[in-house]
Amino acid sequence: MVWLFDYDLTLYGEEERFVLDSLDRRIALFVQKTVGGDFENATRIRKEYLVRFGTTLSGLMAMNGTDPDDFFDFIHEPEHLIYPKKAPDKLALLKSLEGPRFVFTNGRHDWSEAGMAHMGIDSAIDGVFDLKMMDWEGKPHESAYAKIEKWLARVLPEKGWAMPANPKEIVLLEDSLRNLEPAHARGWTTVLVNPNIEAPDWVDHHVGHLLELKAL
């Protein structure tokens, strides 16, 4: 099996939403800096772009000509962010999974790498496939999934693993149904990690928290 983990609200859970809230605040501040107006309006635009374009950054690039690295340099200033707590139980779980383990994230790699280091789980992750490697067009765009498949076909043999012949051996764990749908269409195994929504029939597995993966 090849394991692909979303980072936000997947490797750390809903009980640590304050981690994502700290990042969302920085994103709204960047939107405010870009488009003007007050913080409340910037928050509304942040959410609108997220729904319309898949990520707030995609909206900023399309509507405002934002340079993506400028965006991430601003929102990732560490003194303004909160990171997940130490998670030795997650480290043990991840290391118990047979096969390579990667992060597949709509963020730039430094956000998830810093978070995983704070959690103490970075040694269990074999690499990060981030938004920059998707040419800034992330999940749920079809191109993101095609690009990570192409990347896996190159990287896995370099690390001593074979690319799965059966797409079902690629497992994506995500808190977002919208981001799972293209994976399902490609024949991957889908795991919804979210305690707040019901899983439709096409989702292969549903857990409320990453640690519930042990029971599957």
Please give the radius of gyration in angstroms: 17 Å
Structural class by secondary-structure content = alpha/beta
Count of runs of 4 or more consecutive helical residues: 8
pLDDT below 50 for ≥5 consecutive residues: which ranges? none
Spatial shape: globular
Tell me what portion of residues adopts beta-strand conformation: 5-15%
What is the compact description of this entry?
Helix content is 45%, strand content 11%. The chain has 216 residues and is an alpha/beta fold.
Description of the structure:
45% of the residues lie in helices and 11% in strands. It has 216 residues and is of the alpha/beta class. Strands 3-2-1-4-5-6 form a 6-stranded parallel beta sheet, with helices on both faces. Helix 8 (177-185) links the parallel strand 4 (170-174) and strand 5. The two termini are 14 Å apart. The model has no long low-confidence stretch (mean pLDDT 96).
